[in-house]
Amino acid sequence: MAIGVASSLKARRTTDDYLVAGRSVAPWLAALSAVATNNSGFMFIGQIAYSYRVGIESVWMMVGWVVGDFVAWLFVHPRVRSHSEAVDVATIPALLGSHPNGSRRVIVVLAGLLTFILLGIYAAAQLKAGSTALQTLFGWDPRLGAIIGAVIVVVYCFSGGIRASIWTDAAQSFVMIVAMLTLLTAASFELGSPADVWANLKTQDPALVEWFPRDLAFGFAMYLLGMTFGGFGAVGQPHILVRFMAIRSVDEIHRARQVYFLWFIPFFVASIAVGLYARALMPDLLEIPLTDGMTAAQATELAMPEMARRLLPDVLIGLTLAGLFAATMSTADSQILVCSGAVTQDIFPRWKNSYIVSKLATLAVTALALAVALFAGQGVFALVLIAWSALGAGIGPALILRLFHIPLSSLTVALMMTAGVGTVIVWNVIGYDGDVFKILPGMAASFAVWGISLAFDRPARPKSAT
Question: Which domains does the chain have, with CATH numbers?
Fold first, then answer.
C-alpha cells in the first residue's frame, strides 16, 4: 500500500496516466509486473493443487505454457506496443476496434463487455485465493480474506492507477518467489531429496510418478499442444497486454522478455515441486470431509497454506501468507484497472477523459469482483482457467489478425468472439478439458470462423472485355 501511495507522487491526473502510465514504464518494471500478474493465485493455490492431484505429469503444463508464452512475446507483444501508440489508444478493446476509417464501435463495445465480465470473474478468483489462505491458517471466516484484498487494491489503485499497480507488482514479485522458495526449502528438510519424494509418491500411487497422462482421448501430442495454446493465450489477456502498452518503447520489449522468463521459469518449477512435496507430506488432504459444497479439487487448494502451517515457524508462515497475498493482489489490481478502462474508454466513451469517473469505475468493478468471490462456487484453479481460456479464445485470434493488418469486418470479429467463447464453454461442459486444454478448440473455432468468412468476402471478378 505504501508503494502504491508513493507512486501518486509521479502520477498525473489524466486518464492516459491512470490507464497506461503515460507509456513511460522501464522494461524491467514492466517484465516483473507482467510476471507477477500472470503468476498469481493460480500458481500459489491452483498450480500447487494441480500438481498435488496429478503428480509429475503436471510438468507438461509448464513446458507448454512457457513455449506458448514465449511465442506470444516474440510475435505479438511488440506489435501491441507499437500499434497502440500509433492509433493512440489505452485499452485492448479500443486497439482491436481501431480502423483507418475510424473506430468500429460495435467491436470496441463487444470486446469491452467481454473484458469486463471475464476479468471480473478472474479478479474474483484472486480474491478467493486470499480467503482460502486465511481460512486455513487462522480459521477466519472464508469471506474475510476477499474483503481485505479488495480494500487494499482499491486504496493503492486510487493512488496511482496502473503505475501503482506496476510498482507494487515489482515488489510483490520478490515476495512471491522468496515465499515459494522458503516453503520448498522447509519441505526439503522435512522430507529429504527429490528421490525420497519420488519414492514416497510411488508408494502412494504409481500414477503420480508417471510422466505421461493416461487414457488421453486425442493422444499426447494434442494434449501438449493444448497446453502450449494455454501459454499463447496471453495474447488475449488485456491485464497482461496493458503492461506492454505502458513500456517506454517497442525496442525495450526484448529486455523485458529476458527478465520475465528468468523469473517465470524458476517460479513455475518451484510451484510444481511444492505441489509434489505437499502430496508426499500430506496425503490426508484427500480424506478431509467435504462441507458447504466443496469438491475434492477445492480441498487440495488448501495444500499450500496447510503445508506452511505444518512446517514453518510463525514468522515464516507470515512470510508465506504475504507471498500469497502479493500474488493475488498483483493480478486482481491489474484486472480491476483494465475493467475500469473497459467501462470508461470502451463501453461508455463519453467518460473517457474523466479522471474521477475512472476511479469510480475502479470502485464499482472491485465491488463486482468481490461479490463474485464471496458467492461463486468454483475453485480458484477452475475460475482462472475458464476466464483465461475464454479471453484468449474470444479476443486473441481477432487481435492477432488486427495486429498483422488483416482486414476484418465487424460481423466477422463478433462471430469470431462468439465462436471462441462459446467453444470454450461447451468444451468445458462436455468434459474433454483434461484431454485437450479448452483454449485450443476455442481459438481453432475462432480462426475457423475467419476462414469461412473469407469465402464470402472475396471481391467479385471483373467482367472480361468483349
Answer: 2-381 (1.20.1730.10)
